[in-house]
Design a protein that fits this description.
A three-stranded mixed sheet has the order 1-3-2, with no helix packed on it. It is mainly alpha-helical and 294 residues long. It has one domain. α4 packs antiparallel against α8 and α7 runs parallel beside α11. It contains twelve helices and three strands. Helices cover 67% and strands 4% of the residues.
Length: 294
């Protein structure tokens, strides 16, 4: 087994005796070639990425009585609570569909995001023994949490299909917009996962603050209420949150059979892709000293 030390891009050399491989990790330069080289290396480790993702899903539900049903129980229980509170007690502005399906349609992308970020933030620290002993692209760990959260959302979407059938909400061709919408969601979830997981290595406060951050973030996203409830004077700043467009666009496409606001969705895509590139470069820079700090 090789060992790892830090030096001023990952480079594999042989020890003087030629007995074992030594991986030297150094921060990438801010050049296109460096970024492409890191992505090519990540592709070479695709088997490890797939294996760890499957392992992540299996471990999550191992020795659980309900098993994968937990992926459904969480959003369903949240939907029931929100429906009881915001439909029966504190009435929300009127919607074209029942509040239960209105809330559940937003909980699918939201839970995918929150599950990705909360898991990935603690992922590097939780695998400290692996990181300090074996070399592999460290970004594989947060990526596996994003993919596992998407799997949970896919399982939970079966309930949305059941609710649509129960409330006689027809599915139209506009539902195909869910593909680019979830592509933007993946970009933003991955960017936040890379950024927060790398920061958590140096500042453990991030993990402690994560539950509070996600709770505040949910209320700053139109999960419990429609976008139309936000006053117009605040909407320009409010929509800088990429999840606003993701959640609202998903509702429009799935529940209302409408084309999403393309300008709003494009803005979220630009923000997500830009932040993903910046977060990835930041992550690779932190990776250079990760084994020493973690």
């Amino acid at each position: 087994m090789g060992y790892t030390w830090t030096s001023p891009a990952p480079e594999t050399v042989m020890s003087p005796a030629g007995e074992r491989r030594v991986t030297v990790i150094r921060p990438p330069a801010l050049f296109r070639y460096s970024l492409i080289r890191n992505l090519i290396e990540l592709i070479h480790y695709r088997d490890l990425l797939l294996t760890m993702t499957v392992h992540r899903i299996k471990v999550r539900y191992k020795q659980s009585l309900l098993g994968v049903s937990w992926a459904i129980l969480q959003p369903v229980s949240m939907m029931l609570v929100f429906t009881a509170v915001f439909s029966l007690i504190a009435r929300m502005p009127g919607s074209e569909v029942p509040y239960a399906i209105f809330a559940y349609a937003a909980l699918l992308p939201w839970n995918a995001f929150s599950g990705s970020v909360s898991g990935a933030t603690a992922g590097l620290v939780g695998h400290s023994q692996l990181i300090t002993k074996v070399y592999f692209p460290r970004e594989i760990l947060p990526i596996t949490y994003v993919l596992a959260a998407l799997f949970d959302s896919l399982v939970a979407s079966s309930v949305l299909a059941g609710l649509m059938a129960y409330y006689s909400v027809a599915l139209s061709m506009k539902a195909l917009w869910a593909i680019p919408i979830f592509a933007v969601l993946i970009c933003f979830s991955l960017s936040m996962s890379l950024f927060l997981s790398a920061t958590q290595v140096r500042f453990r406060d991030i993990g402690i603050a994560m539950p509070l951050l996600l709770q505040l973030w949910m209320f700053a996203t139109p999960v419990l209420y429609p976008l139309s409830a936000v006053p117009l004077r605040f909407r320009d700043v409010y929509t800088l949150n990429p999840l606003v467009s993701i959640v609202e666009s998903f509702r429009q496409a799935i529940l209302y059979a409408r084309t999403p606001d393309l300008i709003l969705l494009a803005r979220s895509a630009i923000i997500s892709i830009t932040f993903l590139i910046v977060s990835y470069l930041y992550f690779k820079r932190i990776e250079a000293t990760m084994a020493d700090t973690i």
